[in-house]
Structures are given as structure tokens and as C-alpha cells.
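Tutorial handout. Part one gives the primary structure; part two gives the three-dimensional structure as C-alpha cells.
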Amino acid sequence: MSGRPRDPGVDDAILRATMELVEEKGYRAASIEGIAARAGVSKQTVYRRYRSKGEVILDALAAYAAGNLPAPDTASPRRDLAQLLTATFAAQQGIRGALNRALVAESIGDDDFARTVWERLILPRREAVRTILTRARAPRELGDAEADFLVDLVYGPMWYRLLFDPPSLTAAYAERLAEAVTEMAAGGS
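Part two.
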């Protein structure tokens, strides 16, 4: 017998409390104890779901990305990519950008956590871009290695700018990046 099923309301309360607490106090000052108190649950309830503060924050960011960042499908791959990047860049200007930077810092010293960040946060966003770039390539198929390279060309500048110059992640930058990468995807360069 596996016990009682988890209450999705508790999961939502934990994720919401995490974002609120980190926004108010910052990443370093947030704690599992503080998250639990804010969510109105016990510390053990949080620890049954997560091994660390980083994992709670990772899930909060992944949930935000899944629910709030677009995966547009219009007649224009360039416009689709620009919309996706504009929303992604805008999200990086607030607490989510600070949290992404904190997750990168935590990933540097923990290979297992880095793999978890890759799988739960980064891969789904890469897949959204890959889908858009595949539409840009029609009628010729976009191979896996080529698609990965083009996705790297999208997210490499984002992570670089996020780490060192977050204000430069503007809608205009998103437009220029979308145009350059979709041209490469369409032309097969």
C-alpha cells in the first residue's frame, strides 16, 4: 500500500510560498522552514517532496515556465520564436532571473542537481524552440545535431546575458536573435 495520494493543493501552496518568500527575502535567506511556514505545512511535508531548497525553487520555475511561457504556432516561425523569447526575456528581469542565476550557481558544485535542472527546466524549453525551428526548415527536415546547434544559438546568448547583463534581455534583442536563428534554420547554413 502506497499511502495517501498527494494533495495538489499542498504542492501549489509550497510552490507559491517559495516564489513569494524568495521575492521578499532573496534566494539565500529563503529556507525550507520558511517555505513550510508560508505554505502552512510542516517541514516534513516539504522534505517529502524535495531534498533541498534548490529543488523546490527549480520546480517553482519549471511550473512557471510550463504555465506562462508561450509555445506559439502561427504561420511565422520567426514571429513564434520572437514571442517565445520576448516572454522568456521579460520573465528574466524579475525574481525568476535571479532564481535562474542561483540555480546555475548551485549547479556548478553539484552535478546531480545540474542534471535535474537540465531535465526539468531546460529540456522542455529547448523542445519548444526546436519545434519552432523545425517549422522554419520545411520542406527539408532539420536533423538532430543541427537542431541542437540552432537551439544552442538561441539559449547560449540568453544565459550569457542573464548571468552578466540581464537588462540587455529586451524585446528588441529577442527580435534580432529570432530573426538571425530562423534565417539560419530556413537556409540550412
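Part three, for discussion. The chain has two domains: 1-49, 52-187. Residues 54 and 103 are 7 Å apart (CA to CA).
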